[in-house]
Amino acid sequence: MTTVLLIIQLLVAAALIAVILLQRSEGGALGMGGGGGAGGGMMSGRGAANLLTRTTMFLAAAFIGNSIALAILMGAGTQDQSDLDQTVDTPVIEVEEPDQVPTDG
């Protein structure tokens, strides 16, 4: 199940990158891209109904939902204890003390 979700995650991520790169740049990043006009922008009425925008929102929701599902599945097999609560079984070396301690005197 985890392998299937990982493959879906990779496909959704690749599609999301492709759809984002296909969209027209409206930010005017360093003066490139032909942005700057008020008509047809991302926040206008026509831009909100754009097919690429809706596809981006759908793919983003699928990416987030798939990420949550993967996190739940990966966390299901772990113990309820944290790493700090777990003890490590290390051998204890006992040191024998002498019966009498020599004194100088």
Description:
There is one protein chain. The protein is mainly α and 105 residues long. The protein has a domain at 1-23 and 48-77. The protein is 49% helix and 0% strand. It has 3 helices and no strands. The protein has helices at 2-22, 45-48, 51-76. Helix 1 (2-22) packs antiparallel against helix 3. The mean pLDDT is 76.
Secondary-structure topology with pairs:
Blueprint: H1 2-22, H2 45-48, H3 51-76
Helix pairs in contact: 1-3
List keywords for this structure.
105 residues; mainly alpha; 49% helix; 0% strand; rod-shaped
Question: What share of residues is helical?
Answer: 40-55%
Structural class: mainly alpha
Describe the biggest sheet? Answer: none
Strand content: under 5%
Radius of gyration: 30 Å
Total helices: the number is 3
**What low-confidence regions span 5 or more consecutive residues with pLDDT below 50?**
none
Number of strands: 0
H and E string:
HHH
- The termini sit apart by 78 Å
Average pLDDT for all residues: 76
Q: What best-fitting shape do the alpha-carbon axes yield?
A: rod-shaped
Summarize the structure.
With about 100 residues, the chain is mostly helical.
